[in-house]
């Protein structure tokens, strides 16, 4: 990094030689901007764009006469509402070092007068810091069985080349709650396991482990994982078999006395029929586990009200099936923000046109965290004009910060037809969105799905992350990646394909099994993807949806 600083200083010094030559021109141009007498001229940048090297940004501007100092602000949004850091300098250049990697910063610069009433107007620019150099992702995903209301057991890979000495657990959304951070004991370091206590109930947390001996702040953490602590919701309503769930949900959606995040606990073995509506506040549908998972017959799709902010939507241990040919689970053309969407241990059948669709050009939609685990899509698709599993079509106005799919199965997506071209088209199509996304598929089984179609499309979201590992691809799908934006970090590992996938495994750094799905699974055409051979590398390497492993 010392070498980086020397190079940057040399570049800045060279640029400084041209500053005096351009100063008069700058002043003349600025003179046309201001109408107030005594205001300082708006600063002008020397370069068309800031100089970016790794996670550092250098900025140079022309001197403004009578300026006492200059203020530089780094924001993470283009409305300049999310201030990351502010600097005040007297020089006409600044080197902002050791700031977050792979982050789009919106920068503004102001010349300061001795009398603040005559400060200049802001000058604006932006810069994207580079990807963090490769680092080990040693922190393991948190399993639900390791989570209680007030504690969590965390695990990481013990590796002498990647030492860990501290840990932090921070609320992901509720920033007013305290974070928990501490150094690890020698026993925890050697075992790769630590239990953190003192959590708040039913709260979303981000976890990091660190090597604090590294000199630079943003090189200290390893990968981050997310979990929600256990515990009751703000209110829990027991819903017995025979209850009119549709009427209950609709009434409570409009009732201001029913709190956001209310949990509806559905009796095991029950069947409910609903006509989904426009959601005004978040809720949870949780199926009982003492018997068959509850079933919900849907006659339509959910939407979210224009301009809403929802903390979360959660669906757990339920079988959903659709009765309308041209419908979805969720279809929205409005603008809204939601902190978290979770699906756990759910089954989805008969969604023929698509599952999750965004539309409405320019209608901004933000999802903080989308998590789907231990879920199955089976006998879906089959519509003459399908859209896809997850398709984001708000003309660039979709902002999904993080989407993680784990231990899920996607299979048989041409329901009620023999025409395989009437399939679900994709797993995830991010459309023209330029908002970076962290997209992860881990331990996924894909059988007879997305025939001749690409699975993932991230064409415009520069600086995204795609993780695709432990995936079993046993389908005549098209390319795994249709398009991927510049500066996207990708990780492919431990993936396998059957002979049904005709494009080979090299594109996903996988291994070809050399056998078909019919030879690998017990009875795939009937929906049984249990692995026949207990000595198969799928079993020994724990590939695909682990629920299918013997």
Question: Which key terms come to mind for this protein?
Answer:
550 residues, 18-stranded parallel β-sheet, 4 domains, Immunoglobulin-like, four-stranded antiparallel β-sheet, mainly beta, 6 helices
Describe the structure.
- Helices cover 9% and strands 38% of the residues.
- With 550 residues, the chain is mainly beta.
- The chain folds into 4 domains: 2-128, Immunoglobulin-like; 144-228, Immunoglobulin-like, CATH 2.60.40.10; 232-299; 308-548.
- The protein is globular, with a radius of gyration of 27 Å.
- The model is unreliable at 1-5 and 17-35 (pLDDT under 50).
Instruction: Report the end-to-end length measured between terminal Cα atoms.
Output: 51 Å
Estimated share of beta-strand residues: 35-45%
The number of distinct β-strands equals 41
Largest pleated sheet:
18 strands, parallel
Query: Which structural class should the secondary elements be placed in?
Result: mainly beta
Number of helices: 6
Quickly count the domains: 4
Quick rundown:
This protein is mainly β and 550 residues long. It contains 6 helices and 41 strands. The chain has 4 domains: 127 residues, Immunoglobulins (Immunoglobulin-like, Sandwich); 85 residues, Immunoglobulins (Immunoglobulin-like); 68 residues; 241 residues.
